[in-house]
Each structure stands twice: as structure tokens, then as C-alpha cells.
Amino acid sequence: MNGKTFRKSGVVLLGTLLVFGLIAAGVFSWLRSEPEPVTSCEADFRLFEHAFGVSCVPVDPQNVLSYGPTPGQFMAAIEHPVAMQEEASDVWTSADIPGLYEHLREVNEGVLDFGRLRGISGATSLELLLQIQPDLIMSQYLIDEDLARTASLVAPAVLLTDEGDWKETTLVAGDVIGELEEAEALIAAYDERVQILREQFDDSSAITVSLVALWPNSASILLEDSFSGRIIREVGFSIPEPQLELNTQGEIINARYMPFSEERLDLIDADFIFLFPSQTGFDLSDQGYTPKMLAEEFQSNPIFQLLEAAQSDTVYEAGVHWNVTGIYSAHYVLDDLFRFVAGIDPEEVAPNPLRLE
User: What is the secondary structure of 222-240 as a DSSP string?
Assistant: First the structure.
């Protein structure tokens, strides 16, 4: 390349960079400005109010991109195609529920593909947005407002609700895609199974249950406002009195998790204890652990062996679905409670309507 050609290429490159710089500056300025309130929509769109305001969403969305397991599980349940990040749909949407990932693949076949990017389901990536070209974006998670507005440059972006309330998230997801009745029917079927489970006990409140999430070298109690804690509360089971006392004294900062040390194993003393990894087996394997190893290590503590559940042999190693929100996960938690607490095969009294096996 001669000097003249090199200089010409340099000018073109510099011009291109300046153009992109001006565009980026313009977008950044737009993001920082106050958006005009949305009061009307074009044909085939409708106003939809959500946590970040009001958006014009398509009446019949086809290319839906979802962040979070709850909307992903809902879309799989009603067999509506939904795009997600590949790793997120595998690990979080399907949790450890047999056949769910494959079912979602079948629902998407010939319509939508999962994003090829690797990453957690809460991440917002413009590359992923442009790759899938969605006509609607649903997020279960509270993301940065600037990121939400950036996503809305590609497609209408809707924040469903607080990720802790999986029922409300499911209903809002159904509403935004025009399938509210389907969402309500799914919740009603779940509530019916909850009632049947309650009826298996003379007084379900007399039964105490502790939920313990395990990490390498640490553990947390899942409290009443956690995903599985809400299910325990719906069935009518109680949490141990020491946990209630801490909550009353205002010592619990996070309403869903409470880390505790080996010196406070009294906090989880209950009729039944469910142990499960807070992360998936994939993440744990990177640290040289498996879920079973974590559970065995935690139970090896001599003090743990003095707990009521340990002496009654009512300590159970639960699956990841206990800590991954969604309609499939909720039914599988109920399955576990039927088997381990009520001592009944759920298929005999209240079959799981979403079992894929």
C-alpha cells in the first residue's frame, strides 16, 4: 500500500469513527433525556403499563425475547415460542426438570432459536437483541433503567414485576402477550394442587420446615418471601420459631435469604429440612463440587446430627427447581412435598399437569 492510499484509508477510517462517535453520543444523550410519555400506539399495538412506565406492545407478538426463568417456563407451558440466551434457557429455565429444555426446543423449532451468546439470564446484550430481532422483550429482573431504554430501541421492553412473586410475573407475562386466560388457568391448576396437599394434614401449620441453600463453605436459610418459602407458606407449613424471632427483631435484612454459620444450626431445627444448592451443578463443578457433595459436607457436622430432622431421617436433598422460579418449578416443589412430607405419591391424588416424562 503506498502512502497516498494509506492516507486515504486513514481518512475513511477516521470519518467512520467520527460518525459512530456522533451516533453513540446522540444515543447516550437520548438515554439521559426524559422520554416523552406514551399516550397512544400505532395499529396492531396497544398500551401496556409496567414497572418502567407505559409501552406500546404488539397485539400478537411472535419473536419474544425473555430474560428470566418465570416467563420462559410460562411460555413453554403454553407452547409459545420464546427466545432466550442459550445457557440461560438450558440451566435456569429447565432447572433440573426432566424434558423441559427439550420441550422448549421443540416449541421453538422452525420459529425461533435461542441466542448463541453465553451468559446469565439477567444480562442485557445489544448483540443478542440484534441477533434475535425480537418484536417484544420481557424481563423478569429489575435492570438498570438506561439498559431498559437501550433495549427499547430494538423492540418494546416490558419489566414484568418483582422476580420474587412468580405468580404475578406469570400473570403479567400472560397479559403482555395476550394470553392472560392461559396464565390464570395455569395458576388455578397449581392452587388446586396446593389445596389438595393441605387436605392431607389435620393441621399443616403444626409441621415445621426449613429450607437451606448451600454454597461451598457457606449456607443460607431461604425465608418466607423466597420462591420456595412462599410455596411452604401457601401449603400452610410453619418455619422454626428461631427464624420467626429473628424476623420480628428486625435482624433479617434480605427478605429471601439469610446467611448463617455453623454456630446457629438451631435456626434450621425443624420437622423437615430440605437442602439444595443455590446454584446449579454446572457452576459448582467449576469449583470442584457437586450438589451431593455439598449436602454430605453440610450434614457431616456433629451438631447437625442432633437436629430433629436429622434424628428422624427427614432431611432431603432437593433439586435446583426449589430455587428457580416458574410454573414448572412450583409444581415440582409440590411433588416433593407430597412425597416427602405427606408420604403420598402425587400421581395418585393430584397428578402434576406439567410433567413431561
Answer: E-TTSHHHHHHHHHT-B--
What cell was used for 355? 410433567
* 47-73 residue pLDDT tens: 888 877 788 899 999 999 888 889 999
- The strand pairing partners of 165, in sequence order, are none
DSSP 306: G
Using one digit for the tens of pLDDT, what is the confidence trace for 210-260?
999 988 888 999 888 889 999 999 999 999 988 877 765 444 445 677 888
Amino acid making up residue 264: R
324 in helix, strand or coil?
A: coil
**Distance, CA of 351 to CA of 353 (rounded, Å):** 6
Task: Please answer whether residues 142 and 51 qualify as being in contact, where contact means their C-beta atoms are separated by less than 8 angstroms.
Answer: yes
Number of Cβ atoms within 10 Å of the Cβ of 216? 13
User: Does residue 25 surpass a pLDDT of 60?
Assistant: no
DSSP letters for 327-343: HHHHHHHHHHHIIIII-
Within 249-313, residue ranges assigned H as helices are 281-285, 291-299, 308-311
307 SS3 class: coil
211 within 8 A of 233, measured Cβ to Cβ: no
Name the β-bridge partners of 55. 48
**How open is the CA angle 141-142-144, to the nearest 5 degrees?**
125
For 126, phi then psi, to 5°, come to -65, -30
pLDDT in tens, 100-130: 989 998 999 888 877 655 544 444 566 777 7
Provide the phi-psi class of 55: left if phi over 0, else alpha when psi is between -120 and 50, else beta.
Answer: beta
Grid coordinates given for 70 = 418465570
The span from the CA of 135 to the CA of 113, in Å, is 14
Report DSSP letters for 58-106, one per residue: ESS--SEEEESHHHHHHHHHTT---B-BHHHIIIIISTT-TTHHHHHHH
Q: What are the distances in angstroms from CA 122 to CA 26, 142, 226?
A: 26, 9, 18
Q: Which amino acid is at 53?
A: G
DSSP states of 158-193: EE---TT-HHHHHHHHHHHTT-HHHHHHHHHHHHHH
What pLDDT is attached to residue 228?
Answer: 93
Pairing relationship of beta strands 218-222 and 257-260 according to DSSP bridges: antiparallel
